[in-house]
UniProtKB/TrEMBL annotation:
The keyword ATP-binding is assigned to this record: yes
Keywords from the named record: ATP-binding, Nucleotide-binding
Gene3D superfamilies according to UniProt: HUPs
Signal peptide (residue range): none
Gene Ontology MF annotations: ATP binding; sulfurtransferase activity
Top-rank taxon: Bacteria
Family matches, as InterPro entries: LarE, NAD/GMP_synthase, Ni-pincer_cofactor_biosynth, Rossmann-like_a/b/a_fold
GO BP annotations listed: purine nucleotide metabolic process
Protein name: PP-loop superfamily ATP-binding protein
Residues in NAD/GMP synthase domain copies: 16-82
Length: 269
């Protein structure tokens, strides 16, 4: 399907829904769904819901609320108590399913209470090629993914987002804090908090794309390879800071930042 056909298909899909509750993360994908939905359905028929949780960076939640309001949407924030769910707390390979199930349950309740027709998310075609147990939760609740239905890949999303002049059109991908831990590792508020504090600190130093992978006593830092010299020039200061957060060892992953790296560990088992 050609690009313009995909755009037309997306609008056709959303128009047929009549009213939607959108799982809004503030990223490039859900921002495009939100902007397009408002265009074809009108603001009154679109509700943007932004989820907060201990496992979501506070800055990402606040940015998502801000972006939703800037796009012009009715916006509602909700809190998900994810660490109270056993399968999430113990970070089972199925934890993504339970995380999404918790989200979709809340959104479905809102849809039913407020009288909207559909819950939609921002999943795209690319999402079909990684480990995505969240797809099972989506299907269980009848949540729809308009971008996927219209066969949008990431380049299509960025092109369309630029056309809408969305500030997120070139925004780097973000990911749930669950991705910082190995599977089958028990999560505690303390471990989660030190990961978040470490990433905030590194971002403030200028490492905008960063993941701190928590291996109990070890903080394994992933940044873009071109930022290695900048990191190494400050290595001692960075090490001391992360040690103060509770780590025993601090390491730099020589492979650099790679999306979905923790899933590679799952594939080897």
């Amino acid at each position: 399907m050609e690009y313009l056909e995909k755009v037309a298909k997306l609008k056709e899909i959303l128009t047929s829904m009549e009213s939607v509750v959108i799982a809004f993360s503030g990223g490039v994908d859900s921002s495009l769904v939100l902007a397009t939905a408002i265009e074809v359905l009108g603001r009154e028929n679109v509700l943007s819901v932004v989820a907060d949780s201990e496992l979501i960076m506070k800055s990402e939640y606040l940015d998502a609320v801000k972006n939703s309001e800037k796009i012009g949407a009715q916006t509602k924030g909700i809190f998900l108590d994810e660490l109270s769910v056993k399968e999430i707390q113990t970070n089972q390979p199925s934890s993504w399913f339970y995380s999404k199930r918790l989200l979709y349950q809340e959104l479905t309740n809102l849809k039913n209470t407020l009288g909207f027709n559909w819950v939609v998310d921002g999943m795209i075609m690319d999402d079909a090629f990684d480990y995505r147990p969240g797809l099972k939760a989506r299907d269980a609740f009848g949540v729809r993914s308009p971008l996927q239905e219209a066969e949008f890949y990431k380049p299509d999303v960025r092109r369309a987002s630029k056309g809408y002049d969305l500030p997120t059109w070139n925004k780097p991908a973000t990911c749930h804090v669950l991705s910082r831990f190995e599977y089958n590792e028990r999560l505690t508020s303390e471990r989660v908090e030190r990961v978040k504090k470490s990433e905030i600190y590194l971002q403030e130093l200028g490492f905008k794309i960063v993941r701190v992978r928590d291996h109990r006593t070890v903080a394994r830092i992933e940044i873009e390879k071109e930022k290695f010299p900048e990191f190494l020039a400050q290595a001692k200061t960075i090490e001391e800071k992360l040690l103060s957060f509770g780590y025993t060892f601090v390491s730099l992953d020589v492979r650099g930042y790679t999306y979905g790296k923790m899933n590679k560990l799952l594939e080897k088992k």
